[in-house]
Amino acid sequence: MLNEDQSSLIQVSPVLTPETLSEALTKWFEKPCTFTHWQYVSDTGKGDSYLSDLMRIRIYGNNEHGVSKNVQVILKTMPSSVARRLTFKSHEFFQNEINFYVKVLPALLEFQAKKKLSEPFDSYVKLFFAHCDGTNDVICLEDASLENFGGAVRQEGIDLAHCQQTLKSLAQFHAISFAMKDQNPEEFEDIRHHIFEVYYHERLRNWYRRFWKRICGIAIDAVEREYPDSVYVEKIKQFCVPERYDDMIKAATRSVTGVISHGDSWTNNFLFKYENGTPVDAKIIDFQLTRCATPVLDIAFMFYACTSQDLRLKHYEELLRFYYDVLSKQIVEMGSDPEKLYPWGLFKEEIKKYSYFGLAFSFESTPMIILTPEDAIDMEVKGVSKLDIDDVWCIGPIKDKRGRQREAGNVVHCVDNGYI
Q1: Same domain, yes or no: 64 and 207
Q2: What is the pLDDT of residues 306-365, one digit of tens each?
Q3: Residue 232, domain member (yes or no)
Q4: Do 72 and 44 contact (CB within 8 A), yes or no?
């Protein structure tokens, strides 16, 4: 990439023409600006994205007075490999995220802007440019690292302070949907139809069937090796059946408490700002799996993808209350009644009803999370034909005890709390 012609980005994507980039720069700086060149900054790291190609670049232009301006962005493009695009349905994930940034998020923020909030939701990165045609899809987002936001180490479970910042950002995000659905139901109904389910849907059953069997086998192996001859082995075997996908479909698509949710709330998709080593703010990134569903799907997956059993044993109820208090405060400040829309009792009922979803989704994420960057799966797929994802995501049983305990601990927590 360092040897590319940096006077043009067409070699990266044919839609990134000088004219297109000039329009994007003009909109970004709110004054006429003409694209001149770009500069490669860095890749984002192996294992940081399994559904797209990412790189960090700086885009330059001159304003009407000839003064150079630039913006540093994360450029997300569909995989160059045709086989990889087809295998992972890249066009669907890009379409869903672009619809979120172009149609859904602006409506949510416009609704929020009419309210007087002590702390409005701003835990997102701004869109610089997006294009969606099913072949050359591009998403270009501001690089939050310039504001001193960075990722936590995904191989380690996040601590209490990280959990609080993560849950705060999710609660403030979810609260907008609750209030908007209450006050402007027709508008909310309209925007929610701009996003669609890209993971758990009847049309995707065959796409996921073999891989579900693989990741269930990994989970069962971890529990059998760490908790042999226990109730946890019995419970996980009862849970890991093909029919579980039906439950996942229902959870992802049929909730009366549905909000615009993130859909993929694991460690990689949160960036944190630190003061003296303590996280003081968070931003949510990567909305490719965004859906309209109960907020508990985000919460449950966050717990099982991001935290350790030790942290849950010490702080689980405290963190659930923390999330709900932030959520209800935001709803009140936006002029609605959380006791009417989503009372604490209903929230706890849904935690019990839907936490299995976070467990099931963690079967996929945990084996990926615990891999070091050097061991991360090479997602390149050669050729031009669609493959089964099970032939590409060739993960096997977790080799180290610490990783197995991370996987098995999620099962233990679900069983002990009566979730499965």
Answers
A1: no
A2: 999 999 999 999 999 999 999 999 999 999 999 999 999 999 999 999 999 999 999 999
A3: yes
A4: no
